[in-house]
Amino acid sequence: MNKSEFFKTGWCLFNYDRQLANWVTQALPYARQAIKADENIRWLRCGGTWQAGVNALPNRTDGSLGSSGEIRAAVIDFIHESLALAAFDWDRAQVSVCYPGYPRPKDDESEAAFIYRRDRDAAHVDGLLPEGPDRRRHLREYHGFILGIPMVEYSKGASPFVVWQGSHEIVRQFFMRAFEGLPTGEWGELDVTGIYHECRRAVFKSCKRVEILARPGQAYLVHRLALHGIAPWQPGADATEDGRMICYFRPEFSSPEAWLFNP
User: Fold this and answer.
1) What is the pLDDT of residues 54-64, one digit of tens each?
2) What dotted CATH number matches 3-261?
3) In the chain, what are the domain boundaries?
């Protein structure tokens, strides 16, 4: 993998890795149990077409489950060597599952929000969370990267992950401007809704939208600042009875400075 290419495009797909495929085989039963667990039913959204599964996978801090051993793969080596993350604890993975018909409107979703989900893939940057009745955006989480690991086979058009190529540097420039002169301890209190919307419009105008198709044993790594989302399920697309299931790891940095300024 070309390190400079990753930092230019903001994402990369890693080829089939036997070690990762073995981890998927051992992790899949846990993922299936997790999305059906009573405590995770609350993550079933969009009229039953999306199980968000946030932090649902019961993995340990080395990525292991049961007797699987720690998570190992070429993509993991790349993360340690290229992202200034020599040592970190794995978060509990998100188990994201889409089903035919995604997206249907959420119960609490406005018409405008649903149209954005349907027509713009609900494009967002992780960590900029909507809060309050007016859903004002604030920086609350500082993810180091997004690692997508497909757990089952699915076809092109089965709600693939979408990324806007090169968007991470546009996002960086907008938020460097937003937080300029403000102590980092106060970044989270700043309402960034307006500049966030302006930033997304700039990305849509200038960056290529890419749908990522991957299969078990492969993985894709996405820059933490990249604008990304989930595409609607297309007619004729198919998957196993599990739906389109992908596990996402998003370990966090310890500081907002690292989130904004690290490569």
Assistant:
1) 999 999 999 99
2) 2.60.120
3) 3-261
